[in-house]
Request: fold
Amino acid sequence: MIGPRRIMLTADAVGGVWQYCLELAAGFGARGTEVLLAAMGPALDAGHVEQATGIPGVSVRPTGLPLAWLAESETAVCDAAEALADLAADWGAETIQLHAPAYAAFGEWRAPVVAAAHSCVGTWWRAVRSGPISADLAWRAALTGRGLRRADAVIAPSGAFARALADTYRLERPVLPIWNGRRAPGVTRVPRMHGFTAGRLWDEAKNIATLDEAARLSGVLVRAAGPSVGPNGAAVSTNSLHLLGTFDSAALAREYATAGFFVSPARYEPFGLAVLEAAAAGCPLILGDIPTFRELWDEAAVFVAPNDAADLAEAMLSVHDNGAELGEAARARATRYTADAMVTQTWAVHAGIASGRLAA
Reply:
C-alpha cells in the first residue's frame, strides 16, 4: 500500500506515548517514510533524543508547547494547535498524528489528521470519580470531544476504550481500535517472591492506595517503579510499597525478570503498556477486573475487584502456587500484541486518509 512520504507525530516523555511513537517511527521508516517527532511538554533529556535520532529517517523538533491535559487555558491549547499546524505545513507533512485529540479542535491543518486517543479526562472521570466533572477538567473534555469529531480518523488502543470514548463523547463516527504493541524483551526469568508494579503511581486511576493496603494485609513485598508526583501536582503516599523511582527500559526488564508477579489493580486503563511488557517477559498477572483488561487478558491473568484490598491480598498470596502456568499464559497472550501489527494497522489508517479512501 502506497502511503505518505512524510508523517508528523506529536510526542512526549511523560508516559508511554514516547515508546509508542518510537515503535511507529521505526515501522514507518522501514516503509521509506520520513518521520518528524514534535516533542511536547517537559523537555526531552539526551537519552530520549538519542533514542529517536538513532532511528533512520527520524528527526526530533522540541516545541516547548504544553500538553493539552496540563495547559492552563483553552487559549493555550488553541495556540499550541496552531503552532503544530504551522510546523507540519512548513516541514511538508502529508499526514499528522496527534496524541491528544484536543489539538485537532483548532488550527488550520493542511494535511489529514489522525487523532490517537491514549487517555482522556472525560473517560478518566467516569471511571475514577462520580458526579459532574470538575470545572477544570470539563473544558478539557469538551475540547477532546471537538477534536475527535474534527479529525480525519480516530484510533484508540483497545476496543473497550474505543467504546468508552464513543459513549462519553456521544460520537457518531467510528473509533478504530488498534491494540498497542511491544517487542518482546527477551529476558530470562529468575522469579523471586515479591510483586512488581510500574506506571504513573500518582494517578488515582492506578489505584495505588488499594495496592498499598493489600501489601500491608498480605505481608508480600511489592516493588513499585514510576513517579509518585505528577506534572500536575498530584501525588501519592504509601506505607507498605517499596518505591523505586523512575526506571529506564533496561531496569524495568530486570524487574520483569525477577518479579514473582506483576500487579495492576487499575480502575481505568485504556490499554496498559506495563502489563504487556510484564506479560511478554513471562510475569504472572494480577489485574483489576475492568473492561480493558478483560478484553486483553481474559483467561491469561488473575482478576480482582479493583477496590477490594482483601481480595487483592489473597490473590498475591496464592499466585505463587501456579505462577509458572500463569506466566506462560501471559507470555502466550502477549504474542497477540506486537509492534509490527500495531505499525501495519496504523500505517493503513495514514495511507487511507492520505488517499481519501478512509472515510471520516
